[in-house]
Specification:
This protein is mostly beta strands. It is built from three helices and 22 strands. The strands form six sheets. An eight-stranded mixed β-sheet has the order 2-1-15-14-20-17-16-22. A four-stranded antiparallel β-sheet has the order 5-11-10-9.
Length: 294
């Protein structure tokens, strides 16, 4: 069975629900619109995530793109259970405010009081919604080096169906219930690889034919507590799958790993069903060290 793209998911607002798509432009910063927005504490500017606000999983974004052939977006609609949706006209020139994402400190563009009040009501705490400015320069060093908006680490997270199948089998052996891929919030899911965790062994991979994208492996992804959050209910449902992953996917520096971070080596268009071709493999013993998001 050939390896193909089985799922494509964009996360317009960091730590909120994903948006499955049939096709996407892959830019140097990842899938177009991915993590373009972040919710921050109104006072400190520190980003919020499902680690402390699991209900963010139930905030569903919908981007309103510009016209055909035009890059960018004009609006963003947010919906959540028990709340009327809110739509904000994206303002690329709004007031700028300090933003902190882990160790990174930079600037975001505030998107106004209306959406801030809506989010504050949903999450029960004063927040602001900020967008990545056009001139953001958030660089991440690594094997290849990459750029991102408000992602934790690198532009693209890749997981394979074989890796999830292996986890589900081990959960079953321990009397646990299966978990969906949504727990791990990947951008690209590959099906057709016979062995699990091949995404950790790739050096470079190509997606699609001419005009497709090429990605380069950076590091395995050390998981935080977000995989414990049921992405449908916005509630923590631990200790699985972290407990089972700890039996066979421990990182050398601590924590457990699932999926892998990639840099964008060549931007392009990708779509469901596109072929996934490994251009080169990492030498044995030369896999990138696992990294905690920063």
């Amino acid at each position: 069975m050939d390896a193909v793209v089985a799922e494509l998911v964009c996360y317009p607002v960091k730590s909120c629900a994903g948006v499955p798509v049939a096709s996407a432009r892959v830019l140097p910063t990842g899938l177009e619109h991915d993590r373009r927005f972040v919710i921050v504490d109104a006072a400190s500017g520190t980003f919020l995530s499902q680690r402390t606000y699991p209900a963010m999983a139930c905030i569903q974004p919908e981007v309103i793109p510009c016209g055909p052939g035009v890059t960018g977006l004009t609006g963003l609609t947010l919906s959540a259970p028990g709340h009327e949706p809110v739509t904000v006209d994206v303002d690329p020139e709004g007031p700028r405010r300090a933003v902190t994402v882990h160790s990174w400190e930079g600037i975001g563009v505030d998107q106004g009081d209306s959406v801030a009040a809506w989010l504050g009501d949903v999450l029960g705490t004063p927040v602001r919604l900020v967008a990545a400015p056009a001139d953001i320069r958030r660089h991440r060093a690594g094997r290849y080096g990459s750029w991102s908006h408000f992602a934790d680490a690198y532009p693209v997270l890749v997981a394979s169906q074989a890796s999830l199948d292996e986890l589900i089998a081990r959960l079953g052996e321990r009397g646990g219930e299966p978990v969906p891929m949504t727990r791990f919030r990947p951008n690209i899911v590959v099906s057709g690889w016979a062995a699990p965790h091949l995404e950790d062994r790739v050096d470079r991979l190509a997606i699609g034919g001419n005009g497709g994208a090429e990605l380069g492996f950076e590091r395995e992804c050390v998981r935080c507590t977000i995989p414990l959050v049921d992405q449908d209910t916005g509630r923590k449902a631990g200790p699985e799958p972290i407990r089972t992953l700890a039996t066979y996917r421990r990182a050398a520096d601590g924590g457990v790993t699932f999926a892998a971070n990639y840099a964008v080596l060549a931007p392009g268009e990708v779509a469901l069903g596109d072929s996934v071709t490994v251009r080169s493999w990492l030498p044995e013993g030369d896999r990138g060290k696992a990294v905690r998001p920063s």
